[in-house]
Amino acid sequence: MNDSRPSDIFNLSTYIDHLLEGKAGELEITALHQAFRNQRSVLGPQNQPCTAQVYQQLGIALHNRGEYDPAAKCFQAALKIWEKLYPKDHADTALTLDSLGMSLALLNDFENAKQNLERALQMRKRVLGVDAPELGASYLHLGVLQRMQGALEDARVSFERALQIFAGSVGKAHVLYSETLVESGLVLQKLGRTDEAGGRFMQALAIDQHRSGENSPEAARDHTRLGELRQATQDYEAAAAHLQKALNIYRTIRPQDHQDVADAARRLGVVVQEMGDLPRARELFEQALGIDERIYGKFHAVTARDANLLGGVLQAAGDLEDARQYFERARKGWENSFGDEHLNTGAALSNLANVCLQQGDYEGARKHFEEALRFDESIFGREHLIVADDAANLGSLLLQMGKPAEAKAYFERAMAIRRAAWGEEDARLALKLAEDPSVLDPTRASMK
After folding, report:
1. Which of 121, 53, 116, 122 shows the shortest CA–CA distance to 81?
2. Which of 50, 168, 220, 295 has the highest count of CB atoms within 10 angstroms of its CB?
């Protein structure tokens, strides 16, 4: 006897809409899965087109929630059905291949992502033609993958092709056109073409404000990109203005404890610290940390990043004991998230050592510098330049502690690594700087 309820099947589209919009709670997600099971029971075999469509929609919803692994599984299930239904090229098959490729890319499975994206692109050419907006989407997504892989020139070409297709099919006021402008701008920025990147971001902002309003998520994204670009060119006032606008938008359109609000506060905090406004930076980092604690808990990689930034601004302000506590907390958060062998742990150890040094706690500083040296040796190998920096830090500390013989051994090790990497002259200059920073800046006190 079939106990499927038509009302559940009817509600399936509503559940998916809520999931796509980020409105679905856990109970509604459970109801969605039950409704899906009921639909499959009513429709019979799984080679039904509507079943594949539900898999596709579920995959999109899960992808948008950042759940890339289950999203990929949904796309794979849909693809299996499409390939049974349509032995030859079909637009539905191409869509699922494209969606699967993007989820795999965000799972860092670049090889399989590329295969699926390129297959979707070629299929769309054959089925839809060379000027179809779906083909533009394929070039857009392939460009994103190429950017993630560091193939910047290939990505730039893919984005230019996508822009050309979108301009002729959906128009320059369409969301796909502005999204591609942003992606293109990111690549141009990485290629050092900052003026062109800024033009792309500004063009995207104008489109998004006209289409979605000044307080839209797209406008916030565009202000963020412009702020980060201006920060990279050290135009901190312009950067702060854009990042403040992004933060204001997210505070207007998002719940108080939303990740977007925390991220925007953190980005702005970094810039205002560069501008020397330490109290404002501290306030912003504390806001970000408070939100992220409520989302992730006290000892998580995200809260560790916040704690590390807060420790840095407190150190700069001379509040060394509090800085030390936040650096220690950052270390625990990274260790809790990644284990004992992660590069951020070495950075946290160095931060702790420097605070101890400022406090006059030479033994504490030595302990943390030695820990950082052992850690970085295990991560990077004994001949890495980061290991040379660790050795030079220990040498400088031991000089201050009145132990020149021990210091000499660490300086010689640092110089040997740097000589191999840089050559004799630069290695000697690095050694002089470690022993006496006034070599380059006479206003700095000697460490001797």
Report:
1. 53
2. 220
Please give the Cα distance from 396 to 410 (Å, whole number).
Answer: 9
Q: Which residue do the tokens 């040997």 mark?
A: 416
Residues 6+ apart with CB under 8 A from 79: 93, 96, 97, 100
- Spatial contact of 55 and 81, defined as CB atoms under 8 Å apart: yes
For the chain, list the domains and their CATH numbers: 257-380 (1.25.40.10)
Give the residue carrying structure tokens 């207007």: 252
Q: What is the pLDDT along the chain (448 residues), one digit of tens a residue?
A: 333 333 343 344 454 455 544 444 454 455 555 555 565 555 555 447 878 888 888 888 888 878 899 899 989 999 999 998 888 899 999 999 999 999 999 999 999 999 999 999 999 999 999 999 999 999 999 999 999 999 999 999 999 999 999 999 999 999 999 999 999 999 999 999 999 999 999 999 999 999 999 999 999 999 999 999 999 999 999 999 999 999 999 999 999 999 999 999 999 999 999 999 999 999 999 999 999 999 988 888 889 999 999 999 999 999 999 998 999 899 888 888 776 666 777 788 888 888 988 888 999 899 988 888 888 888 888 989 888 888 988 888 888 888 988 888 888 888 888 888 776 555 555 555 555 543 333 332 333 2
